[in-house]
Each structure stands twice: as structure tokens, then as C-alpha cells.
Amino acid sequence: ALFLGSVFSAMYFLGHVPIDFVLPPVILFSVFYILVYGFSCQAYEVTDEEVIIIRPFKNKAYLIEDIMMADALPREAMRWTMRLFGDGGLFGYYGFFTNHWVGPMRLYATRRTNYVLLQVRGNKHVVFTPDDPEGLVKKIHEKIRKKSFEPYNYD
Questions:
Q1: What are residue 128's DSSP bridge partners?
Q2: Contact at 8 Å (CB) between 60 and 50?
Q3: Among 120, 124, 123, 136, which residue's Cα sits nearest to residue 72?
Q4: Is pLDDT of 138 > 90?
Q5: How far apart are alpha carbons 28 and 34 in whole angstroms?
Q6: What's the pLDDT tens digit per position in 64-121?
Q7: Chain centre distance of CA 6
Q8: How far apart are CA 41 and CA 94, in angstroms?
Q9: N or C: which end of the chain has fewer CB within 10 A?
Q10: What is the DSSP secondary structure assignment for residue 123, as one 8-state letter?
């Protein structure tokens, strides 16, 4: 797509193609790239209340109280993963995916290693790829334990 935009632009500036033909694809591809970048994963954060996937447009958060399980996945668990709807390669891998090991999942990946699986209430699976998967899983487990032992506030 970027190559196509470059070709159209070069053709226009060389005088072979009218602007009416060049401008729509360039605008379309530019909007596409902005949208794809806007929903890409930039970082992950664990707070006392949520696990947050940080994205340029809108962050995605999963409540700690809704997380049933968190565990690091071996790389083999993500083999033969199929994209159902999402992006696979441009600015990362994110969207709806499925495979034999995990089943249907939301994937928020910036690389093809260091997978972490969250099982969220409602039997939903969320997979993402932090820099330190074991450290992040440990941090999530600490937050889950802390949350489960907090006394209920009756006020």
C-alpha cells in the first residue's frame, strides 16, 4: 500500500497521471495507515484495578477482578494461529485470532515471542507479548491475590 502510494505520487510528479487519479488512493492509504497505527499496541501496564493495553487511539483495559487465569505461553502454543479479523504484521499483530491450543482469542502482540495468556470472565482469552512475560504474570497474580483478600467496603 505504501509502495502504491509512492508509485502514484511519482507518476503524478513526473506528469503522467492527473491529480484526480492520484489523490484518492493516497488519501485512502493514508487513512488506512493512521487507523492501523492507532489500534496498535504500544505497551502494557498493570495497575491495582486493571491490566491495560496502551494504544495511540484508545487503551483497552481488563479488570483484575475479571481475570480468572494468567500464564506465560510457550511459543509453540501460538503456531498455526489464524487471523479472523485484525492486523497481522503492520505495527504488530492484533485483533481476533484463533488456534488449536488457545481457541478464539484477542491478540495484542508486538512480537512473535513472549506470549502471555489471560483468561477473562466469560471464557474469553486475551494474549499479549510483554518484554518480561514471567514478571508480568507474577505481577498480575499478586494483584489478583491482593484483590481477593481485600475486605468489602460497606459504605
A1: 108, 116
A2: no
A3: 136
A4: yes
A5: 10
A6: 999 999 999 998 989 899 988 988 777 888 889 999 999 999 999 988 889 999 999 9
A7: 28
A8: 8
A9: C
A10: T
Length of the chain: 155
- Helix (H) or strand (E) holding 29, with range, is helix 19-38
Cell, residue 37: 497505527
Identify the pLDDT of residue 70. Answer: 92
3-state secondary structure (DSSP) of residue 55: coil
Return the residue matching grid coordinates 497481522. Answer: 88
Q: For 17, how many CA atoms within 13 A lie in the half-sphere containing its CB?
A: 16
Q: How far apart are CA 136 and CA 95, in angstroms?
A: 21
C-alpha cell at 143: 494483584
Q: Which set of grid coordinates corresponds to residue 21? A: 487519479
Contact 105, 111 (CB under 8 A): no
Whole-angstrom distance, CA of residue 86 vs CA of residue 55:
15
Return d(Cα 4, Cα 10) in angstroms, integer. 10
Q: Determine the Cα–Cα distance for residues 3 and 9; give it in Å rounded to an integer.
A: 10
Distances (CA, A) of 81 to 46, 116, 154: 26, 15, 46
Q: Quick check: 64 and 51 in contact, CB under 8 A? A: yes
pLDDT one-digit tens code per residue, 83-99 = 889 887 778 888 899 99
